[in-house]
Amino acid sequence: MCVFCKIINNEIPSYTIYEDEYVKCFLDISQATKGHTLIVPKKHLQDVFALEEPFTSAVLNAAVKVSNLLKEKLGVTNINLLNNSGSLAGQTVMHFHLHVLPRYGNDEIDFHQVEHEPDFAKLDELYKKISS
Ligand code: 5GP
Ligand code: ZN
Question: Is 97 a catalytic residue?
């Protein structure tokens, strides 16, 4: 059984800050920033490709609830919602989870890439492939 399934079954402890029928939300053991929380469906679904209703909706609804809880209790006003699906994307626990990552301005996390001139030929080709 995976580590998040064990947490869901209360076989290993967690700091759970929100829970309902479909999700459990607990503090990440390694706080990338203060309040860093994981939203985890209560079914072992590996990644975004495996996610299914009612868990899909429950995950985002819980993310909104947790975000507002962190705002109310910690004064958080900036948040990234982040999912890593697949090892190349950085997934280390193979049970889908959404990171709720509060941002504080001096936390040295930077997701932005340096932007060049848009390549419209490439965008056009890509769009046709995806939408055909
Ligand atoms: P990933 O890299 O798969 O997107 O994120 C996995 C996250 O799970 C990491 O941020 C890691 O700190 C967290 N994590 C791993 N094991 C445990 C655990 O036993 N308890 C808690 N609360 N978090 C964990
Ligand atoms: Zn699991």
Answer: yes
